Protein backbone atom coordinates (compact mmCIF):
# COMPACT_ATOMS: atom_id res chain seq x y z
CA UNK A 1 0.00 0.00 0.00
CA UNK A 2 1.42 3.35 -1.08
CA UNK A 3 1.57 6.05 1.59
CA UNK A 4 -0.02 9.38 0.80
CA UNK A 5 2.25 12.30 1.72
CA UNK A 6 0.79 14.43 4.51
CA UNK A 7 0.95 18.19 4.85
CA UNK A 8 -0.11 20.42 7.74
CA UNK A 9 -0.78 24.07 6.77
CA UNK A 10 -1.32 26.76 9.41
CA UNK A 11 -2.33 30.31 8.51
CA UNK A 12 -4.80 32.91 9.75
CA UNK A 13 -6.12 33.69 6.25
CA UNK A 14 -9.08 31.39 5.46
CA UNK A 15 -8.86 31.97 1.69
CA UNK A 16 -5.19 31.05 1.63
CA UNK A 17 -5.86 27.89 3.63
CA UNK A 18 -8.64 26.82 1.31
CA UNK A 19 -6.54 27.47 -1.79
CA UNK A 20 -3.61 25.51 -0.34
CA UNK A 21 -5.91 22.65 0.62
CA UNK A 22 -7.49 22.48 -2.84
CA UNK A 23 -4.19 22.66 -4.73
CA UNK A 24 -2.38 20.15 -2.54
CA UNK A 25 -5.35 17.75 -2.45
CA UNK A 26 -5.40 17.71 -6.26
CA UNK A 27 -1.77 16.63 -6.11
CA UNK A 28 -2.85 13.70 -3.90
CA UNK A 29 -1.53 15.03 -0.60
CA UNK A 30 -3.44 14.43 2.62
CA UNK A 31 -3.88 18.01 3.86
CA UNK A 32 -4.89 19.31 7.27
CA UNK A 33 -5.41 23.06 7.61
CA UNK A 34 -5.52 25.11 10.81
CA UNK A 35 -6.33 28.78 11.19
CA UNK A 36 -4.27 29.48 14.31
CA UNK A 37 -1.38 28.12 16.31
CA UNK A 38 -3.58 27.38 19.31
CA UNK A 39 -5.06 24.46 17.41
CA UNK A 40 -1.60 23.03 16.84
CA UNK A 41 -1.42 20.89 20.01
CA UNK A 42 -4.72 19.19 19.21
CA UNK A 43 -3.79 18.77 15.58
CA UNK A 44 -0.42 17.22 16.33
CA UNK A 45 -2.13 14.68 18.56
CA UNK A 46 -4.49 13.75 15.69
CA UNK A 47 -2.29 14.33 12.63
CA UNK A 48 0.74 12.05 12.61
CA UNK A 49 2.79 13.33 9.66
CA UNK A 50 4.43 9.90 9.32
CA UNK A 51 1.19 7.93 9.21
CA UNK A 52 -0.72 7.30 5.98
CA UNK A 53 -4.13 8.16 7.42
CA UNK A 54 -5.63 10.50 9.99
CA UNK A 55 -6.55 9.11 13.38
Please render the helix and strand layout as text.
Layout: E1 6-10, H1 14-26, E2 30-34, H2 40-46
Parallel strand pairs: 1-2
Tell me what the structure shows.
This protein has two helices and two strands. The protein has a two-stranded parallel sheet. Helices cover 36% and strands 18% of the residues. By secondary structure, it is α+β, with helices and mostly antiparallel strands. It has helices spanning 14-26, 40-46; strands at residues 6-10, 30-34. The protein is flat, with a radius of gyration of 11 Å.
User: What structural class do you assign from the helix and strand content?
Assistant: alpha+beta
| Number of H/I helices | 2
In what order do the strands lie side by side in the largest sheet?
1-2
* Gyration radius over CA: 11 Å
Number of DSSP-assigned strands: 2
**pLDDT < 50 stretches:** none
Helix content: 25-40%
Average pLDDT, all residues: 82
**In sequence order, what are the helices and strands, one letter per element?**
EHEH
Q: What would you call the shape?
A: flat
C-alpha end-to-end distance? 17 Å
Major sheet: size, sense and barrel closure? Answer: 2 strands, parallel
Q: What fraction of the residues are assigned to beta strands by DSSP?
A: 15-25%
Quick rundown:
By secondary structure, this protein is α+β, with helices and mostly antiparallel strands.
Short descriptors:
single chain, 55 residues, alpha+beta, two-stranded parallel ribbon, 2 helices, flat
